[in-house]
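cron nightly-structures :: item 1 of 1
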Amino acid sequence: MYGWTLFLVIQTGTIAAVAVGFARYLGVLFPSISPTTWIIHPIALGSKLAVSLSIQQFVGIVMVVLITFLNTLGVRLGKLIQNIFTSAKTLSLLGLILIGVFVGRNHAAIADNFSNFWTVRGAVPIEPGASFFRGWLPTLTAASGFMGLVVAFGVSQVGSLFSADAWNNIGFTAAEVKNPKRDVALSMALGTIIVITLYCLANLAYLFALPLAQIQNAPDDRVATAALNAISDPPGH
């Protein structure tokens, strides 16, 4: 059951999300890669459900097909591609963290974010996406007390858990590792620690560079791009 779920939902969903994320940030360099530039305009299947294909989604699909094809050409090429992309991502994140924390410090943003750290601002109601659930589950707001806090905390974990989603993938290669008893466990632990550290420091860089309102309303959810734009063009310049 887990194997089929991994094949049909977990891994496929993760790959699709990463591909769309790549296309979303590629749209910074090429604005024509937009979620509202349609190849197939939305076809309504209900009051809140539609099928469509945007340029952004199409680029994501092309990347999945391309990377899959390249991985079929052999382990050596796959290893090279993975090493290049992993190094590029890690170095880019480190650069963003260093620039955001030490170069692009926005004192107004720092004062706003950390002096009101626990103050609810810009909150929106949390309600079930499917209409037939709304009769069973309440709409939660910032004033909903403990239950509202629990649900909001759960929603906020989507990004952080997604960033660490592949922590256990090294287990797939256990049969090919020379000393799996040591190396697999060590890789899982070190990989998780590195991802959590980079994630926390990247969010710290965002809080140093942007007021909370700009983080919440970053265009197309591209917070890193908004932070770099703010750093390269600081207020008053």
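cron nightly-structures :: done
Strands lie at 38-44, 50-54.
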